[in-house]
Amino acid sequence: MSKDEGRTLAEIMADLHADPEWVAREEQREREQQKLAEEYDRDVAPVVADLAKRGIHVRSLGEFINTSESYPDAIPVLLEHLQRDYPLRIRESIIRSLTVREARGEGARIMLAEFRNSGNEHHRIRWAMANAFDVIADAEMIPELEELAARERDDSVARMLEMAIKSAKKRKPA
Fold first, then answer.
1. pLDDT in single tens digits along all 174 residues of the chain
2. Four-CA torsion 25, 30, 31, 34, nearest 10 degrees
3. Which of 15, 12, 16 is nearest to 25 (CA)?
4. Where are the alpha helices (DSSP H) in 54-136?
5. Are 78 and 98 in contact (CB under 8 A)?
6. 144 in helix, strand or coil?
7. CB neighbours of 126 closer than 8 A, spacing ≥ 6?
8. Could you name the domain of life of the organism this protein comes from (predicted)?
9. What 3-state class would DSSP assign to 136?
């Protein structure tokens, strides 16, 4: 029997809040989360500002990622920022925001160029781009995707490229 069995959540939480070490760890965790949130806001500000100039008002790119609504007017801005240097979290958010049908065609080709130039980039970024191809690549891109998949050293990225190729075979060129 565990020491907490038979106790209410309120009793367990009261004990935790009475423990100075637990309180100190929680306060430190909250400070770190706040710092990360402030860094994200600062780093994403140029993207958010350019979107606002187009009449698209968001606080973060997560608003695109977590919506089922279409945002075609945001795609050109996101594609422009995809080609800039950003910290990992922002770059990944831009890529994930471009993982929509509206980014097919020119957007897919820009993403492909970015993928080709991402050789030393973090595998999460390369995987996110390969994942985007599953949505935005068309049949015209298959030879290039096959070449990239054959040369890819990261197995998870290569598998995602293979999935994208299968999806692209079902689509007409944009």
1. 466 678 888 988 888 888 889 888 988 989 898 888 889 889 999 999 999 999 999 989 989 988 889 999 999 999 999 999 999 999 999 999 999 999 999 999 999 999 998 876 788 999 999 999 999 999 999 999 999 999 998 999 999 999 999 999 988 766
2. 160
3. 16
4. 62-65, 75-82, 88-97, 106-116, 123-136
5. yes
6. helix
7. 115, 118, 152, 154, 157
8. Bacteria
9. helix
- The verdict on pTM exceeding 0.85 is no
How far is residue 6 CA from its own chain's centroid? Answer: 42
Q: Please give the DSSP secondary-structure letter assigned to residue 171.
A: S
Distance CA 52, CA 9 (A): 45
Q: Which residues of 55-82 are buried (b: 16+ CB within 10 A; e: fewer)?
A: ebebebbebbeeeeeebeebbebbbebb
Local structure of residue 73 (DSSP, 8 states) = G
